Amino acid sequence: MLNTSRSHALLERARAVIPGGVNSPVRAFAAVGGEPPFMARGEGPWMFDVDGNRYLDLIGSWGPLILGHAHPAVVEAVGKAMALGASFGCPTEGEVLFAEELCAAHPSLEQVRLCSSGSEATMHAIRLARGATGRDSIVKIDGCFHGAHDAVLVAAGSGVATFARPGSPGIPQAVADLTRTAPFNDLDTVRAQLERGDIAAVILEAVAGNMGCIAPAPGYLQGLRELTRAHGALLIIDEVMTGFRLARGGACERFDIDADLVCLGKIVGGGLPLAAFGGRAELMGRLSPVGPVYQAGTLSGNPLAVAAGRATLALLSDELYLRLEEIGAQVEAGLRPLVEARGLSMVRVGSMFTVYFRSQAPADFEQVKGCDLEAFGRFHRAALEEGIYLPPSQFEAAFLPAILRDEDVAFLIAGLGRAMERALG
Ligand SMILES: *Cc1c(COP(=O)(O)O)cnc(C)c1O
Q: Which DSSP letter does residue 20 get?
């Protein structure tokens, strides 16, 4: 058993002043049982809690930390930026260079607007789509997560699924009614929604990472592209998780998708609060101050976040993506036989993966809900004792950082193998 006495004491205090003791619900471990360790510091692929326990980190702050914790280049860049002033609320050179870098990296971006969270990025992209098309409804795919705002908190996977609520009290029915849903990998339902003629946009994660990791079926993304185009709706690919992870140009590059609008976050902020949305110049030109669609943010393009983002992107070389693919393949080669021998399944796309407590790999949200969630909880707790920090929910993908060494990969495979055995034993 891990010694977690200091974490336990902090959790007690936290619960008095923060609802549930956490600032984002899944951190509380409600889906897996037990108490969350409080983290003290990170170094490369490792996190250390306040009791001195060490964990190989497979959440990477829920996606951003493709270079691991406290990468020296990122630390240095943020320190330098801080010394020059944390925020101005005025334009800066760094924002321009960063926007140029994002547009050069992603195939669907001619212009971007920076903001501070993925939730903001999808909220603004949806408003822009509504403003541009003059239509009010959107189609959202079941189990995809686009942040915690009203329009998208319907059948939203991960946190919401973990707490078994279809949406959330506090979202007006009139607002929820404007969000139609369709299962992942199902084109017929989307077609039927689009035929009503009032859909501004279809929004989805091209590789779902908020209901475990689910890959798009062959033809699904292309089908959505053709259907949206035929019905005058926009295709919004939410790459907050997949952007700069599945390739430099995200899922759009990896699957050759031509999105109308793209949302970025997580990796682009290098661990600081930063996100972006963008698309063709003609569409982005409808945003204020050029066009009539309003969008704003006090800390948008914050110099510290831009510095962290630019330092991170500068290290994302072709060699790094090759290494990341190699790490993903090594993990899969080691884990898949262990998973299948125990009657479980696994999905991996690049450096994202999920072990499912279900014999067949799921293709949509309904199938993920059929997993043995109790067994997943035991797996999670056993992995922690092995020094491996998995996402604390069956509905979340694990992320591999590009800095894992071969011995770290071996540690991961052996530890998860034993954890699986204990979960099922
Ligand atoms: C994390 C995530 C978001 C929300 O980003 P925040 O920065 O937490 O607001 C949106 N979309 C996807 C696909 C995500 O994974």
A: G
3-state DSSP helix/strand/coil % of the chain, to nearest 5: 45, 15, 40
Q: How far is the CA of 243 from the centre of ligand 1 (A)?
A: 11
Q: Are residues 142 and 258 in the same domain?
A: yes
Long-range contacts of 323-327 (CB under 8 A, 24+ apart): 323/402, 324/66, 324/350, 324/351, 324/400, 324/402, 325/350, 325/351, 327/351, 327/400, 327/402, 327/404, 327/409
Domain that holds residue 278: 72-314
181 lines ligand 1 (CB under 6 A): no
Atom of ligand 1 nearest to the CA of 147: 4
Q: Are residues 276 and 238 in the same domain?
A: yes
DSSP-assigned beta bridge partners for residue 69: 44
Residues 44 and 85 grouped into a single domain:
no
Ligand 1 center to 147 CA (angstroms): 5
Question: Which atom belonging to ligand 1 lies closest to the Cα atom of 238?
Answer: 13
| Number of structural domains found in the chain | 2
Best probe residue, ligand 1, of 210, 214, 268 (max atoms within 8 Å of C-beta): 210
CA 210 to ligand 1: nearest atom: 15
Is 53 a pocket residue for ligand 1 (Cβ < 6 Å)? Answer: no
pLDDT in tens, the chain (425 residues): 899 999 999 999 999 999 999 999 999 999 999 999 999 999 999 999 999 999 999 999 999 999 999 999 999 999 999 999 999 999 999 999 999 999 999 999 999 999 999 999 999 999 999 999 999 999 999 999 999 999 998 766 655 544 434 478 898 888 988 999 999 999 999 999 999 999 999 999 999 999 999 999 999 999 999 999 999 999 999 999 999 999 999 999 999 999 999 999 999 999 999 999 999 999 999 999 999 999 999 999 999 999 999 999 999 999 999 999 999 999 999 999 999 999 999 999 999 999 999 999 999 999 999 999 999 999 999 999 999 999 999 999 999 999 999 999 999 999 999 999 999 98
- Whether residues 329 and 302 share a domain: the answer is no
CB 369 within 8 A of CB 157: no
Q: Do 48 and 116 reside in the same domain of the chain?
A: no
Q: What is this structure's pTM?
A: 0.96
Q: From the CA of 118, give the closest atom in ligand 1.
A: 5
